[in-house]
Every structure is written in C-alpha cells, then in structure tokens.
Write the structure tokens for this entry.
Amino acid sequence: MVQLFEAGYNVRTAVRDIAGFEKIKSLKAAAPYNSQIEPIIVPDITAPGAYDEAVKGVKYIIHVASPFASSNLFDGDFELCYMQPAIKGTVGMLESANKATGIKRVVFTASILSIASFGIVGTDTVVDGISHNLTHISYFTDPPSS
C-alpha cells in the first residue's frame, strides 16, 4: 500500500469493521499517508453485492486479502472456513467490478500467508521477494500430529 501512496494514489480500504481500518492506519508505514486512506466497511464479503459500494468511482482494484477464521488452519473445516469464503469473496469482488463503470484493471494477489507466517500479520514487517519468511511451508504441508 505504501507504494501506492508514494505514487500519489488514494486508497479505499475495504475492512470488516472500523477497528480493522484503525489497525491499518496505526501501522507505522501507513501513518504518513492517513489522509490518502478511505475506509469502506464490508462486514460480510460473501454477501451478494458486498463490494458494490466499495468499487464505485474507482479506476483500479487490488484485492489483497483472504479471510481466515483462526490462526490455526487445522481448526474446523478448511473448505468451509477458508476456501468457500475466499472463493465467494473473490467472485463477489469481480461481480461488483463488472457492474461498475470506469474500472480499468483488477489485480488479485495471494493471501499474505502464501509468503509469510502468521507471526508477521498486523505488524510493520515489510515482506517482499528478499525478506519473505518461508518457515510456513512446513506448516501447510505437514499437518500437526494428533
């Protein structure tokens, strides 16, 4: 997001509640750009039309998150708790973008969990091609023993 701010873009951030927005604003890297951040509350990303208001008037959409219900991916039903909400949220975003006018590009990225562990989520840690943490790979490929 900082790269978007530095390039002069304003960012509308879809969050589930205002507490999520406050968490983003409080990150040290985002603080200098708070005037360029606008929240939009999307409490249920799986609801039909959930992103309709969020995409109105924007030119570009960068979808960077995927829901996760707990810090332990092996709690509960993985398909029900993680996969279905991620799919519904992504399809919903595309449907909202398709209904809107003026959108030039939609970019989807993977969840941060594809390159970093839960330990860095919500911190000011910069994760990039050089500093990424691959310790999570064994977590995803080797389920905990029961």
In short: The longest strand covers residues 11-15. Residues 78-99 form the longest helix (22 residues). Confidence is low (pLDDT under 50) at residues 133-144.
